[in-house]
Amino acid sequence: MNDASTPRDRTHARARELPGATALCLSIAGLCLHYRGGERIRLATPEKCYSTFLRASPAEGPCIDTVEMEVVEGEVPRPDLLTMVFDDGEAWSVSSDERRHVFRMKVARDDQTPAWSITIDRGFNHGRIYCSEEMITRSGKSSLVHDIIHYPLDQILTVHVGLARSASMMVRAAGGSIAGQGLLFAGSAGTGKSTITRLLGKTRNARFLSDDRIVLRRFGSKLSMFGTPWPGDADIAVNESVPLKALCFLRHGNTTELTQLAEKEARERLLPLASVPWYQPELAKRANELCDYLVSHYPAFDLSFRPDVDELTSLIDDFSRAA
Question: Is 306 left (phi over 0), alpha (psi -120 to 50) or beta?
């Protein structure tokens, strides 16, 4: 799910797909991405993992921040005005001028035409998605646009809009309510996020929101965790939220142990796991401030564990009773 993919060949798509929808609304952590096509531009239904995150409109909520995204055909106008800001070398890049940011998804084609490009104002309020022929099935005067709600486009928007419009940040983590406590299990690939989700998920008092990506959002003096539609190997993507109680950094070990961390070490371990657009100084500053707030107001732990559900459950229960 977290590997950027090239849109599929639509040449032989069947006409019965074309009804689609004139608009789709993706709701994540109080952020609503409202995609609008039109009578002649229809939007295809996204993958199953998005099902609980879809709304007919922002009015169905929960919606705190809304970004209006118009879906059109063609290419971004006046690319000569743009300056490259960031290029990940594989999947996508971002350029800017004085009025807008432009995100492009790369496609392995000779002409290097992007599958889609996003233009969005610097306040991240309104945008436009330009779709290439790679993403379109045509039938008469109508067009069905595929993969509008699709990784990495929606994740890129969520990260940038979350930091620009609210105190929210995406973290590489599993998380949920465990024995009545909101626990975040952070870690890079291979540290055991999906494993611990499967193990603790066998207990009656565990409810996970995600096993790979969590959005943290601050409301006043409190932080809450939100599920996202980008699951890991355990395939968990739940559109709910849980108040945060503590942060655990995962690693596989020969024993199951929980060790509290000092603020400095917790911050050093958190930042590499946060989705921070370092190429945009103002957004990076907000991400740093949110990281500082998290480690200074919530306990952080190193959790070394082996795949033994009884040991892990006993440790988490002891922690919950002490919290």
Answer: beta
* Other C-beta atoms lying within 10 Å of the C-beta of residue 72: 14
Tell whether the torsion through CA atoms of 83, 89, 93 and 94 is positive or negative: negative
Q: What is the pLDDT along the chain (323 residues), one digit of tens a residue?
A: 444 444 444 434 443 445 578 999 999 999 999 999 977 899 999 999 999 999 888 888 778 899 999 999 988 888 888 999 999 888 899 999 999 999 998 765 555 678 889 999 999 999 999 998 888 999 888 899 998 898 888 999 999 999 999 899 999 999 999 888 899 999 999 999 999 999 998 876 889 999 999 999 999 999 999 999 999 999 999 999 999 999 999 999 999 999 999 999 999 999 999 999 999 999 999 999 999 999 999 999 999 999 988 888 888 877 776 55
Q: Which residues pair with 31 in a beta bridge?
A: 28, 65
For residues 231 and 282, is the Cβ–Cβ distance under 8 A? no
Rounded (10°) angle between helices 281-297 and 263-270: 140
Instruction: List 105's β-bridge partners, or say none.
Output: 92
d(CA 274, CA 296): 16
Number of continuous H segments (helices) and E segments (strands) in the chain:
5, 21
Cβ(210)–Cβ(175) under 8 Å? Answer: yes
Q: Which two tokens stand for residue 101?
A: 């940011």
The residue to which tokens 């979350």 are assigned: 162
pTM for the whole structure: 0.90
The three-state secondary structure class of 208 is strand
What structural domains does the chain harbor?
15-164 (no CATH), 167-322 (3.90.228.20)
Which sign does the torsion angle of CA 71, 75, 76, 82 carry? positive
Non-local CB neighbours of 179 within 8 Å, separated by 6+ positions:
205, 206, 316, 317, 320
